[in-house]
Amino acid sequence: MAPDDGISLGLGLTNECNLACSFCYRDPTRSDRLSLDQVKAVMDRLPVRSVNLGTGENGMHPDFKTILAYLKTKPVKLTITSNGHSVAVLEDK
Fold first, then answer.
1. Buried b (16+ CB within 10 A) or exposed e, 18-37
2. ∠81-84-88 over CA atoms, to 5°?
3. Burial annotation 73-83 (CB, 10 A radius, 16+ → b, else e)
4. Which of helix, strand or coil describes residue 55?
């Protein structure tokens, strides 16, 4: 796949969040999560060139590190949208 081929994929691993921003569009009464198997299924079926993890606070997902490790094995650009309050779950490298 050439660098410009494929799609930019936005994945909402969870809609859980540890803040209550007035401008946020997420539904605070729902708690949804994507599983690692669901993420793998999407990655296997679509020609993905980049992935953004967003919607809720990703670090609150119990399998965040496992999903992140899996995505890092893929030849995609990976970005994470975060409020910064759960960045401590990531190790510095």
1. eeeeeeeebeeeeeebbeee
2. 115
3. eeebeeebeee
4. strand
Q: What residue has token string 């809609």?
A: 15
pTM: 0.84
| Contact predicate 81/52, CB 8 Å | yes
pLDDT band at 1 (very low <50, low <70, confident <90, very high): low
3-state SS class at 11: strand
Edge-first strand listing for the sheet containing 77-80: 7-14, 48-55, 77-80
Report pLDDT digits (tens) over 38-90: 999 999 999 999 999 988 899 999 999 999 999 999 999 999 998 888 766 66
